[in-house]
Write a structure and sequence with these properties.
single chain; alpha+beta
Length: 129
């Protein structure tokens, strides 16, 4: 599972096909050597985060495309996170997160935040190592 993996390059496509409902797609190359595809659809499938040997697939709704594209084009580094922790799924294209373990205000990193989920995933991973 890629956790806050820096995006090193990307490409974006606008798609129209009768084979699937994908209208836009971003293909990401990650610093870890992995890859991810973010597909934008009208209605999310139940399994909107999928892990395969070829990489990670994330589905987002069409209205999220502009936000993701702005992050990818921005001056700040962009990162990719995809988690599936015991059925709790999270997928995100995001800017730099607060350092793991750093003190955060409740507004910036409450227990339901992406940062809290990543911290939890890292602790689970380190417990198994």
């Amino acid at each position: 599972m890629p956790i806050s993996d820096p995006i090193t390059s990307y490409s974006v496509s606008v798609v129209r096909s009768n084979l699937h409902e994908i209208t836009r797609q971003a293909r990401l190359q990650l610093e870890s050597g992995g890859s991810a595809t973010v597909s934008f659809v009208a209605t999310l499938p139940a399994e909107f985060v999928r892990f395969t040997n070829a990489g990670t697939s994330l589905f987002m709704t069409n209205d999220q495309f502009e936000d993701v594209h702005a992050l990818l084009r921005g001056d700040e580094p962009a990162f990719f996170t995809a988690l599936d922790l015991f059925g709790l799924r999270v997928g995100s294209v995001h800017s730099r997160l607060a350092d793991a373990g750093a003190t955060r205000s409740e507004d910036a990193g409450g227990s339901n935040s992406l940062e809290a989920l990543i911290d939890h995933a890292r602790r689970i991973g380190s417990d198994r190592a």
